[in-house]
# Entry
Amino acid sequence: MTQPNTSPSPITDFDDVRRRVEAALERVRPALHADGGDAQIVDITADGVVTLQLVGACGGCAMSQMTLKQGIERVVRMEVPEITAVEALSLE
# Structure
């Protein structure tokens, strides 16, 4: 018995996906802004990985990975099922 293919199809309509990711980010922005930060889309790959740049206070915050994974990624993936992961741009 073969396993069903559970990986999403490659993204082809980047404009639509970007609009929906941006709309999902708008849902979490009030919390980011309250702490003096924000998130900006840098890239979206065909396999559904969103790269964000965390700016302002979020850029240097020790809790930014928790915010990214438990806050931003959760909302983005719920709103845009094609997205498989959300990562922060590494400035190292």
User: Anything to note?
Assistant: Confidence is low (pLDDT under 50) at residues 1-5.
